[in-house]
Amino acid sequence: MCKLKVAVIGSSGAGLPILNSIFRYMPKLRGAIILIQHMPAYINQSVRDNLAAHTRLTVKLAEQDEPLKPGFLYVAPSELHLKVVANERIHLFGGEKVNYVCPSIDVAMMSLTRDPAVRVMGILLSGIGDDGVEGISHIKRMGGNTIALEKKATTIGGMADEAVATGHVDSVLSPTQIREALIKHLGEDTGKPNAADRSPK
Amino acid sequence: MKDMVMVVDDDPMVQMTVRRILESAKLKVTTADSGAACIQEVEKGFEGLILMDIMMPGMDGWDTIQTLVDKGLVKGNIICMMTGKESPDDRMKMLKEYILDYIRKPFDQQQFIKLVKEYLSFL
């Protein structure tokens, strides 16, 4: 039985408008989403507010030790790395920058562990550099589903391009297609029980 | 939502053109013709969206942003590069958390206005 579906989205430069496109009209989902966006701390709350205005997901800044819950979009706060402990709980911690940033997408994605009861998706949007590339490979090796943003959707394709070059990206998609993939992978929460949740991957 | 935009570019034609486009969308625009002038404006209290050229004599765009960061002047501002350069160079990697977009010139005016307003909505 699938006990949790989780998607980790990594985003950097030019990512905020893309996120707005992805989450516009996003329904409530049966899984949890973690967003790692490289951004200054003083816009964390307004990014949360912007996303919350677009979607029926419950959008919040991730907090220490909180459990991952279906239907939630957790926005990683700036200046702390985020790990998922035992595939179920958020752990925030300080430390050196990784790939020049904190939080690092790689740190978040690579904290997920293989578990047949947990379905994982990794998505890399836009930005320079390679933060998230190892994370995507890790998710792929674990048997998760991996997506990169298509080149023409951004002026800064570095991270997504690097991930695609590893051969570990399942699909290269537009923002609209990424929204559809999230709905398909995590499942829409219509308020009714879903028989598919009881079948293993 | 703040409505102040600073155009940092040593080319007066770019300053004028971008000012015209943004003022047509009822945004308030100030200009700076150098990195040093940008820093002065921020020190005087500018808060809003900073559209930063890269190639400028003296302090280039990257150095200007690094100076703003080092002086603790970034808070309250969103910074986007605005440049004719095809792709960002590696210097952007170290400033990733402060630079939210890379807008290439020339651009579609309506999409540019939409993008600028979208970034202002985060302030």
Main beta-sheet strand count, sense and barrel state of chain A? 7 strands, parallel
Percentage beta strand of chain A: 15-25%
Low-confidence stretches of chain B: none
Contiguous runs where pLDDT drops below 50 for at least 5 residues of chain A: 197-201
Major sheet details of chain B: 5 strands, parallel
CATH superfamily of chain B: Response regulator
> Proportion of β residues of chain B?
15-25%
Give the CA-based shape of chain B: globular
What is the rounded Rg of chain A?
15 Å
CATH architecture of chain B: 3-Layer(aba) Sandwich
What's the pLDDT, averaged over the residues of chain A? 93
The largest beta-sheet of chain A arranges its strands as 3-4-2-1-7-8-9
Radius of gyration of chain B: 13 Å
Model description:
With 201 residues, chain A is an alpha/beta fold. Helix content of chain A is 27%, strand content 23%. Chain A contains 6 helices and 9 strands; from the N terminus they run E-H-E-H-E-E-E-E-H-E-H-E-H-E-H. Chain A starts with a strand and ends in a 15-residue tail after the last helix. Helix content of chain B is 36%, strand content 21%. Chain B has 4 helices and 5 strands. Chain B has helices at residues 12-24, 35-43, 61-70, 109-120, and strands at residues 4-8, 28-32, 49-52, 78-83, 99-104. In chain B, helix 2 packs parallel to helix 3. Chain B is globular and about 35 Å long. Chain B starts with a strand and ends with a helix. The mean pLDDT of chain B is 93. At the A-B interface, helix 1 and helix 2 of A face strand 5 and helix 4 of B.
Keywords:
heterodimer; A: 201 residues; alpha/beta; Rossmann fold; seven-stranded parallel beta sheet; two-stranded antiparallel ribbon; 6 helices; 9 strands; globular; disordered C terminus; B: 123 residues; five-stranded parallel beta sheet; 4 helices; 5 strands; 36% helix
Topology diagram in text:
The complex is a heterodimer of chains A (201) and B (123).
Chain A: E1 4-11, H1 15-23, E2 32-37, H2 44-54, E3 58-61, E4 72-75, E5 81-85, E6 89-93, H3 105-110, E7 118-124, H4 133-141, E8 145-149, H5 158-165, E9 171-173, H6 175-186
Parallel strand pairs in A: 1-2, 1-7, 2-4, 3-4, 7-8, 8-9
Antiparallel strand pairs in A: 5-6
Helix pairs in contact in A: 1-2, 1-6, 4-5
Chain B: E1 4-8, H1 12-24, E2 28-32, H2 35-43, E3 49-52, H3 61-70, E4 78-83, E5 99-104, H4 109-120
Parallel strand pairs in B: 1-2, 1-3, 3-4, 4-5
